[in-house]
Amino acid sequence: MDATSATSCRSCTLEAAEPGLINYVCAKEDIVTEVRKIAVEIAANPGWAVRWSKATVNKQFKTQPDQILLLSITYEAATMMTHDYKEAATAFSERHEPEFKVL
What we know:
Structural class: mainly alpha
Distance between the termini: 35 Å
Number of strands: 0
């Protein structure tokens, strides 16, 4: 199976898989079939356990934005003060690839 990602960059997909950022990789044409397999696997589990696990995860997703919003805004503002931000904005307006500094 040929690995693809949102950017269709095989090396990007492999890099994301290494630290566990993604769980599954499949060809674009196989995505519906693969999602159905996962759904059937989940549906085969005890109903209350799945329901309560889902409720726990959803609760965390709903409260997490409130917990990280201030930090996110702070980092975003700090990013706007960097050379990389200026380079990205300049490259965008001048229609060329940005050249970011390596940390």
